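Entry:
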Amino acid sequence: VQLEAPKMVKDTPGYNYKYFDINQMIEALKPLFKKHGLLVLQPLTHIDGKPAIETMFISGEEKISFVTPLPTMTVVKDGQQGTDIQQHGSVITYMRRYCLSSVLLIQSEPDLDGK
């Protein structure tokens, strides 16, 4: 899969930068996973009670996995401290994208506007 994975184009606008969307990456990788008989899962888990994401690659009886801690997002609103679920969701998506791109050696093309 590493040898056949396409370069990803950073065409999704962020905060003063561009990135490649996880859905774009998954759609590009699905045919390769199928071709090579891989099941890829990224369930939420924990490390010592703290949120984490596990990235698993399963092929037949073989499994390779790693667990990455998620930074906790604490906000204060109206004097109350808590978790902003939208920020937490963004962190999960960000880490899913970077875990997959790291282990699969996904390359990205320069931003379309040169930044």
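The chain is about 30% helix and 35% strand.
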